[in-house]
Amino acid sequence: xxxxxxxxxxxxxxxxxxxxxxxxxxxxxxxxxxxxxxxxxxxxxxxxxxxxxxxxxxxxxxxxxxxxxxxxxxxxxxxxxxxxxxxxxxxxxxxxxxxxxxxxx
Length: 105
Hints:
Blueprint: H1 2-11, H2 16-20, H3 23-36, H4 42-52, H5 56-68, H6 73-79, H7 88-100
């Protein structure tokens, strides 16, 4: 139905169709998406952080964030994954190193 599609496209709401789904169907879809996107554990985040911080990937993200924000530390902290305010001095040192090596201008 074109009208229902228009409402869905604008709002994401299935309207009465969502009420027609029974519990078994909802359970099936939940299981499907749980299998498709497994939960991320704290250990996985910590493992990623240990590999990422100080890596070439972080350096690339830092360069991109620096350029995007024209040197704004706020943009760096918002853009670099896992960045924290407490690490601002680490990022400042890293940016200074990037200028010395001409990776930033």
